[in-house]
Protein: Bifunctional protein FolD
Organism: Paracoccus gahaiensis
Amino acid sequence: MSGHIIDGRAQAGLLRARIAAQVVDLATRGIVPGLAVVLVGDDPASHVYVRNKGVQTQEAGMASFEHRLSAATAQPDLLALIGRLNADPAIHGILVQLPLPPHLDAGAVLGAIDPAKDVDGFHVLNVGLLGTGQPAMVPCTPLGCLMLLQDRLGDLSGLHAVVVGRSNIVGKPMAQLLLAQNCTVTIAHSRSRDLPALCRQADILVAAVGRPRMIQGDWIKPGATVIDVGINRITEGDRTRLVGDVDFDAAARVAGAITPVPGGVGPMTIACLLANTLTACCRAHGLPEPAPTP
Ligand SMILES: Nc1nc2c(c(=O)[nH]1)N[C@@H](CN(C=O)c1ccc(C(=O)N[C@@H](CCC(=O)O)C(=O)O)cc1)CN2
């Protein structure tokens, strides 16, 4: 008997359809949400993600602006581009694809984005707003995870959520979002003592460690909801495949519900980017914000 497989592709499709309908509505007022994506360098996975973002932005009826820059781009040139995007009224959302090449200061680059256009939610102002329970731009991957959890479980109040991973992009904002939903939240990480025992306490287990299949089946509390954020490319024999941070087959036998990789959290990340762009556009035009859930 296996747990329910959470279909992130289907959920993301529903969310994108809803966003597209809201974009049609905005068009009747002569408003077109615009998203600028900046990619620096040659990372092959980043090129795929940025291409998918551009395609899905256009499919939703929004304007997509792509800036692909050489790996040798100097910091002042990147900051100057961000300054122009900040000043451009046709652009409501700005995203700098991560990781950046090592010679660039990611903190300074993300800090240069106008917080109102920061659809990644990585600017310290948005981080602080989220942490203090105020309206913020919420990072796309944790927002997508929360939507999947609410769709599956409804009210999350009182549930014990264990987030494995403490990154600024996923682990920390995920913990903030779950806390705001009245979960009891534990953040675990590579230095946590007895990680398996911590994970076994979780009604909700979010794995965001970046280590292929690290979370074992016997670390899962029977009936728990498991959200696997990991996207790890591994080579098995002569083929490369994508696996999460959770040993899916073993975990699925114990969990009540689990996200697969691929087809779980990943598609929600881009759908939530479109949702954030729509939100930023509505805020810029003083319009009511769209409801966030699919
Ligand atoms: N500025 C940002 N950079 C990065 C982010 C981010 O949210 N903002 N997240 C990741 C990459 N990412 C989006 O940028 C992303 C990763 C994965 C997917 C996705 O749909 N994955 C598919 C599998 C795709 C594949 O075959 O590789 C899935 O899981 O089904 C979308 C977006 C790091 N950088």
User: Anything to note?
Assistant: The mean pLDDT is 97. The CA atoms of residues 165 and 210 lie 8 Å apart. Residues 45, 48-49, 95-98, 120, 140-141, 231, 242, 261-263, 266-267, 269-270 surround LMY7XDAE (CB under 6 Å).
